[in-house]
Write a structure and sequence with these properties.
The chain has about 400 residues and is an alpha/beta fold. Helix content is about 40%, strand content about 10%. It is globular, with a radius of gyration of 22 Å. The two termini are about 20 Å apart. It binds pyridoxal-5'-phosphate.
Length: about 400
Amino acid sequence: MYLCGHSLGLQTKSTAEYVAQELIDWQRLAVLGHHAAERPWISYHERATAALAALVGAAETEVVAMNSLTVNLHLMMVSFFRPGGRRNRVLIEKSAFPSDRYAVVSQLEYHGLNAAEHLIEVAPREGERCLRTEDLIACLEREGPRLALVLLPGVQYLTGQVLDLAPLIAAARDVGANVGLDLAHAVGNIPLRLHDWNADFAVWCSYKYLNAGPGAVGGCFVHERHGERRDLPRFAGWWGHPEATRFEMGPQFTPIAGAQGWQISNPPILSTAPLLASLDVFQRAGMARLREKSIALTGFLQSLIEDLLPRAVQIVTPGGAGERGCQLSLRLVLPGPEARRCHERLIGAGVIGDWREPDIVRLAPAPLYNSYHDVFLAVEALSRAVAS
Ligand SMILES: Cc1ncc(COP(=O)(O)O)c(C=O)c1O
């Protein structure tokens, strides 16, 4: 019972075929494969664009498959975290994924600023685990003129909470801040409308719900209003320069209009191949149908736990379907190290979720490959693990 798609998604059936094709073309064609491969490498990453744009609710010019999440976050902050005068703070949530916090703090320090003064962290209320939209908006309004950047998750990795992004992004932009999103746990999980929501940028990885494999190439969204801006600083590389003149090898960098202009290096074909295999399935299944099944599957998991384990397991994730994606974060109400042992027994019984200190098990039925039967067997195993 694999309920760990929030960490690493399962392999799409056609992945081996997609990767094998590139190995064959490399062996057969070597350098000629850039233009003569079945899927020519020169524009290989562009094959991901249409499906990614549909998944995140963007125009094709607003998305690009490149790098990995934290690398993209740094590249975006080079362009969209421009502290100046009093506007020199970054707002994040208190339980932000550590890599995001490390990246933000290192960017602050790069600009001669420091976390103690310039990092604003919003926490859930005392005794609560999830963030409240009104608290985030109150903080945005309070800090308004000092905020250069607001970085929010689409789905909070620890609690599984879906943030109400439309009003949050609007409030952040109203106070004059730039807004970036970490969509690691959101892309391929919940419907997104990045263009309409008006985020400045978003970054994601594709090894979770997108099933593109360990360390697979990630993605990036840049809103169209920035696509042709030349005044934004950026870290440039040749793959961000238009293909038509790239191989003239001139000294002058001219960015491609849109998100592709933030590319630096030529894309890793072997780690992009599994992404194409997976996106093909997402396109055929359609996010609307996946979401419908996801709501039912996770709702089933929730009701079984509430019925069978009302005392030993506390669901940390919000109860409403609109406020969560696939994942439920379960707090094991057991004394001391017993919670961790319970998770080990769960793994021993063949239920793969994951553990977050001090007492959280995360389980995420993925609509592409999990069944109601998986969910039923997992809760049965959890009941036994809690009782023994
Ligand atoms: C929410 C979140 N942000 C950032 C990261 C870091 O991703 P990467 O190692 O691809 O930079 C992860 C990885 O799991 C994550 O879950």
